[in-house]
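Supplementary notes for students who missed Thursday's class. We covered one full example, reproduced here. Read the sequence, then the structure, then the short commentary at the end.
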Amino acid sequence: MTFEKRVTWTSHLVRRAIFMIVLPFAGLAYTLTSGGRHIPFILPTLFAGLIGFLSNLAIAECNGIIMETYDTSDLQPGMTGRPRRILPEEVRKRRTNFSCFPRVTAAFAITQSFAFLIAAAASATGGAVVRRIGAQRATAIVAGILLALTLLLIAILTRVRTVQVVPAERYGTNVLSGPEDEWKPVIIGRPSGTTRRMSLLELGAMTRWTEIRKRNRLIPE
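Structure (token representation):
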């Protein structure tokens, strides 16, 4: 559990922002180099390959974002804190067994559904647009739309709000000390503080950080 106080050049957000920004500009470069026979054919070929590479990289980054945001498998009983003795049956039944698979698969289903719908709409209108304004202008429009979506995604992933994650009264203490049946907060790793800057995506009701805050009694169940 790492609490970043500021954005650094080594942070995931900066790397992802660079990858995402390069993709629409690669589309724009392909548009500018596909003007006709007076331009060497190798230039649009190279930019088309770059677009394919960056597209695959963007898909991989999106999959990583989904796993980082909705994976709660490490919050299962026994995965955090010290090993505990065998609890009574009625206590074990009341304990929530967190699993990442329903949330992650639901996130993948939602994102891929939107992807297929947008691809279907683009296929339906792409031919008409190309016939009306030409292929080069059509690719420029696609690059502009991609740039707008990229800026929107960066805004959603930017950490803009400071949220308390670790209870202040237990920070800096041995949270694993005390009786076995005593409530203990969920602290993963060695946090540098009690708060964390979060993005709009991480503030969702089904994210791992919301589950951690619920188990730490910072928000109602």
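Commentary. The CA atoms of residues 8 and 176 lie 32 Å apart. Residues 78-84 have pLDDT under 50 and may be disordered. If anything here is unclear, bring it to office hours.
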